[in-house]
Design a protein that fits this description.
single chain; alpha/beta; D-Maltodextrin-Binding Protein, domain 2; 2 domains; 5-stranded mixed beta sheet; 10 strands
Length: 275
């Protein structure tokens, strides 16, 4: 388009006006594209996942400790795999992904250590527990381990794969009750299933950890295993040697031993151990 004006001054003014308009439009285009570039740069990268294979009895406290860990370490996401310690041991041996293993028994951790599946120097003992006898709230017949002879069905974890089941078996054997009760025992895949059997009325009593008994108001503790009737209950943890998140996994184990995490564990009736 041609614009006719009189005099050089007006020509200069018109030329300057056109130049300002062109630069303004160009600037807007650059700002828009620049904003898009800023949006791309500011978009958050996906969180790094730390996989924790943990004994089923740790479910409730670990969900609280998870918040503590992720608040202190932004960009990290804990992913839990809860099952019996024996099942988790087999999974890790078969190559299942895991950064950390938290076991309810030493034998499962020992087995992995013998196969060089743990990162050397990362194994710790971070908490303990106790064995108790539980019944449903309305049960008035069973008030002691000796009363189990009156029960029709009793549940414990499978001794070969569930540490709580092994401790229950040791307790009953030391109390000279195992032989008379074997036919009444319903074995469960983990302590949570034992609790479910008791709560549903499928069995009259169950032997579980003290921490598990606290997780439900539908059951009650009627007796604690006598002192010395079973092996010491200590929970070990370690980093798996296939982990690609070694530093982050070590930090999680450090947090487990912190005063904040220990207070959470104690709140769920776990016991402190000497490090």
């Amino acid at each position: 388009m041609l614009v006719y004006v009189e005099g050089r001054t007006k020509v200069k003014k018109v030329a300057i006006l056109f130049l300002v308009i062109i630069l303004t439009l160009a600037g807007c285009g650059q700002t828009a594209s620049g904003d898009k570039g800023t949006d791309r740069r500011s978009s958050q990268s996906p969180s790094k996942q730390i996989i924790v294979s943990a004994a089923a009895s740790l479910k409730e406290p670990l969900e609280d400790i998870e918040k503590l860990y992720e608040e202190q370490h932004q960009g990290l996401d804990l992913v839990f795999n809860f099952a019996s310690s024996g099942s988790l041991q087999k999974q890790i041996e078969q190559g299942a992904p895991a950064d950390i293993f938290l076991s309810a028994g030493q034998s499962q951790m020992d087995a992995l250590e013998k196969q060089d599946l743990l990162v050397q120097g990362t194994r710790i003992d971070f908490t303990g527990n106790e064995i108790v006898l539980v019944v449903s709230r309305d049960n008035q017949n069973i008030k002691s381990f000796e009363d189990l002879t009156k029960a029709n069905l009793i549940s414990i974890g499978t001794p070969e794969t569930v540490p709580a089941g092994k401790y229950a078996q040791e307790t009953l054997k030391n109390m000279k009750l195992w032989d008379s009760l074997q036919d009444k025992i319903v074995q469960a895949k983990d302590v949570k299933q034992v609790l479910d059997y008791v709560k549903s009325g499928n069995v009259e009593a169950g032997i579980v950890y003290g921490s598990d008994a606290k997780s439900s108001d539908k059951i009650k503790v009627v007796a604690e295993a006598p002192a010395g009737s079973h092996s010491p209950i200590v929970y070990p943890g370690a980093v798996i040697n296939t982990s690609s998140n070694l530093a982050e996994a070590k930090v999680f184990l450090d947090i487990l031993c912190s005063s904040e995490a220990q207070a959470i564990l104690e709140n769920y009736s776990f016991k402190r151990v000497n490090y």
